[in-house]
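Hi! If you just cloned this repository, the fastest way to understand the data is to look at a raw example. We've pasted two of them here, unedited. The first protein comes first, obviously.
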Amino acid sequence: MTDDSKKLAQLVIQDNSQANNTGALSWRVTGRLSAFANPDASEAHTDFKLDLGLPTMPADYQYPTDPDLKAPIVANHTPETMLSNNVTQQLFFLNRVLESTTDATPLTLTYADAKLTVPNTVVKSGKYESTVTYTVKDGL
């Protein structure tokens, strides 16, 4: 991952219930990372780590100043580290009980601090590929 590619590491979510004025919902995004494979070397690894880091929120987003309110929101926004083993991890949770006014029409999350850790078990250089599968689920 390069500094330039990190600037483009974004997740954009559109809450249509909010956009259509039918009531904003709580929702969460999960992700799972497939094995990193090098087709030329017939090699696949399930121990790469992708840590997205806390996303940069849109410019008009304001975290609460009260630490007792801010802490659970930051925890909800902090993604779990994904391993390349197809295990689902929570990446973002918007809890409308805590964030009733957050605009998600759409909400753009930028992961400028994303970091990919390549394990020392990789012995062959080359191009490795993996797929991230995202799921969005509404409700608490």
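Ok, and the second one:
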Amino acid sequence: MTAPLRIWIVAALVGVGSPLRSEPLAQVLACDTLVNLRVLMSTGERAVAETALPSHPGCRLVPRGRIAAAEHRAMVGGAPYECLSVTGESACAWIWP
């Protein structure tokens, strides 16, 4: 196998230059309680949830760089949720998975 062919195969497997690969979001949806997060998630779409944020006082957007380790974990209906510590805040935040 020639070197250019090997490079192309590796690039295809890794996804280099793939338009389907999405970059991580700069901000995450975070709520003070798991109940607040699940109510916000009921739409099933992040864009809709972001527009609904003003009507959910316990939820907000948090820069991804402020998110740290998991403090609490829960399973609801077979789906895992994590309350992650947020730099500069005293309580963890439940994050949209």
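That's it. A detail worth noticing about the second one: The radius of gyration is 18 Å.
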